[in-house]
Design brief:
Layout lengths: L1 E5 L3 H12 L3 E6 L14 E4 L5 H6 L7 E4 L4 H13 L5 E6 L16 E4 H13 L5 E6 L4 E7 L20 E8 L2 E3 L12 E7 L3 H8 L3 H5 L1
Keywords: Ion transport, NAD, Potassium, Potassium transport, Transport
Protein name: Trk system potassium uptake protein TrkA
InterPro entries: K_uptake_TrkA (IPR006036), NAD(P)-bd_dom_sf (IPR036291), RCK_C (IPR006037), RCK_C_sf (IPR036721), RCK_N (IPR003148), Trk_Ktr_HKT_K-transport (IPR050721)
């Protein structure tokens, strides 16, 4: 897979190093000469250019990319890069970094963004995830279909503890994708039984999140007493 990353700062370089380690081709683009640190990620391709300019993206051969990641520290730049990647070059997958949570609403398919990653929101979500049992935590937002990656740790008092996955009447527009049980990562099957303390990861429509939380959390009669 070929990936272009706009923004060769600490975030862009870290992403590049991880992708290279997994066997992908990576091109880092940045307009600041001081950001071009080939020795830090020597296996990557490097391009000194403005990723908001069509001529630069032509030089980067963006049409050959499977994924473009807009990872600069400027939300305006990330939106422009995302829009150009999607509309001018038809890049199948565009991932954009959101620096200011107030701008998150802009990072959607109208701007060519398939996945928006808000670092402040993700950090706060991870804090919530670490301390919350029975509360739904939103980890990541997907632009297409208005869906989110959400997590909920099944509390001991949940009515679904001990229930088989295939016997649960899940809300529409939700999909259980992973069960994390201790150190194990389980692919859900219809025969797998849910256990108290399981971390459940779903892709769910935002409109279904409250319904999903009600289904999985503590029994209503217990919370009302």
């Amino acid at each position: 897979m070929r990936v272009s990353i706009a923004g060769a700062g600490a975030v862009g370089r870290s992403i590049a190093a991880e992708l290279l380690e997994n066997g992908h081709e990576v091109l880092l683009i940045d307009k600041a000469p001081t950001a071009i640190s080939v020795e830090r990620v020597p296996m990557a391709e490097w391009l000194l250019a403005d990723a908001c300019e069509i001529t630069s993206l032509d030089e980067a051969a963006l049409q050959r990319c499977n994924v473009v990641i807009a990872a600069t520290g400027d939300d305006k730049v990330n939106l422009v890069v995302s829009l150009l990647a999607k509309t001018e070059y038809g890049v199948p997958r565009v991932v954009a970094r959101v620096n200011n949570p107030k701008n998150e609403w802009l990072f959607n398919e109208s701007w060519g963004v398939d996945v928006a990653v808000s670092t402040p929101r993700l950090m706060s979500a991870l804090v919530e995830e670490a301390v919350s049992v029975g509360d739904l935590v939103r980890l990541l937002r997907f632009s297409h279909g208005d869906a989110n990656l959400v997590e909920l740790t099944l509390p001991p008092e949940s009515a679904l503890a001990g229930t088989r996955v295939g016997d649960v009447a899940w809300p529409e527009d939700t999909s259980l994708v992973t069960i994390i049980r201790g150190t194990r990562v389980l692919t859900p099957s219809v025969e797998e039984s849910l256990e108290a303390g399981d971390e459940l990861l779903f892709v769910a429509a935002q409109a279904r999140e409250e319904q999903l939380e009600d289904l999985l959390s503590v029994r209503r009669e217990l919370t009302e007493d």
